[in-house]
Amino acid sequence: MFKREELIPSAEEILDRLPLPAELKKIKAERDRLASEVIRGETDKLLVIIGPCSAHESKPVLDYVERLGRLNEKVKDKIVLVPRIYTNKPRTKGVGYKGMFTQPDPKSREDILKGILTIRQLHIDAIGASGLSAADEMLYPENYAYVEDLLTYIAIGARSSENQMHRLVASGIELPVGIKNPMSGSIPVLLNSIYAAQSGGQVFKYQNWQVRTTGNELAHAVLRGAVDGYGNDIPNFHYETVMKVIEGYSQTGLKHPAIVIDANHSNSGKQFRQQIRIVEEVLGNRLYDKDFKKYVKGFMIESFIEEGNQKEDVVYGKSITDPCLGWADSERLVLDIAEKV
User: Fold this and answer.
1) What is the pTM of this model?
2) How confident is the model at residue 182 (pLDDT cuts 50, 70, 90)?
3) What are the tens digits of pLDDT across the range 27-57?
4) Alpha-carbon distance 15 to 161, whole Å?
5) Which residues, in sequence order, are bridge partners of residue 262?
6) DSSP 3-state assignment of 286?
């Protein structure tokens, strides 16, 4: 049984109540253009989506994003930096902390309306403070409408990539959508998800409307590693594995084939410092093989002000979900990527 608690305003009402200012719309449009050029292969720049596992509190996230904005000035000729501001992400088992969208204060009860307004303000403030528009995970497709004017990159997680509603909504987005391989690691399933997202003519109910989509040619693959039946992590960032994904891409006819490597999760076994080694290996493979370089167009990196993680929000700028690289290591890694593009 469902107990109704509070009527949530429509996305149109929320966007009218807390709009993105005109001067920030111009910044976002330019950031959208830069990220899209990477996926289309119109530039040699790399896309680097970097930030905390979960944005659980606005102040440290804004602090972090301001640092990224300053770092961007040093690397913008080689990298398109996109802050990772994931506001829907709960703990792995879905019990406890539910993410800022549902629980804007991790120490308090759920309050979805406050959460929506909080994340909109966070994204708006982040663009203003850094000149960078963000990535967020589309964990719940219906929620995307509340932030659709704020994001430059949308991620679909491993547990969602086989879900039909995620595929359908992705087909109506006109921005880069990174679809992670499913937890099984199946590449055919991943490519089917991308095919569905790139396909137009999809008709379904969305935000109380019957909608028809035009297809999203910027949907692409994100390799995050897999998990076997015993819970063991199986990385898929190595040269041989990536080349098999490239071979699969070549047989599909998909538009703008692109691969982003998620350096954490099952690729690192959540050993957050391994992200540095993984990125370095992938950069080396890009230098070694022109096809590898042509397809591998970016990284996802989990990073925050303080390294590691914590169970409760005690240490400022430290993840309360998955462990992250600290700022010093993150800055060095981004500078190193820029040198090796």
Assistant:
1) 0.96
2) very high
3) 999 999 999 999 999 999 999 999 999 998 9
4) 27
5) 300
6) helix
What pLDDT does residue 88 have? Answer: 83
Q: Which residues contact 271 (CB under 8 A, 6 or more apart)?
A: none
Q: Specify whether the backbone of 296 is left (phi greater than 0), alpha (psi in -120 to 50) or beta.
A: beta
Confidence of residue 140 (pLDDT cuts 50, 70, 90): very high
Between 13-22, 90-99, 104-113, 226-235, the lowest mean confidence (pLDDT) is in 90-99
- Helix (H) or strand (E) holding 46, with range, is strand 46-51
Mapped onto helix, strand or coil, the DSSP state of residue 144 is helix
Burial of 255 (0-12, 13-18, 19+ CB in 10 A): middle
Which candidate, 178, 205, 341, places its Cα nearest to that of 265? 178
CA 337, 225, 239: angle at the middle one, nearest 5?
55
Residues whose CB falls within 8 Å of the CB of residue 233, separated by 6 or more in sequence, listed in order = 225, 226, 227, 266, 267, 269, 270
Could you give the CA distance from residue 157 to residue 224 in angstroms, rounded to a whole number?
A: 9
Q: What residues have CB less than 8 Å from 15, skipping those under 6 apart?
A: 146, 149
Q: Name the residue type at position 248.
A: G
Written as six digits, the tokens of 210 are: 């019957």
Q: Which domains does the chain have, with CATH numbers?
A: 11-37+46-340 (3.20.20.70)
Eight-state DSSP code of residue 319 = B
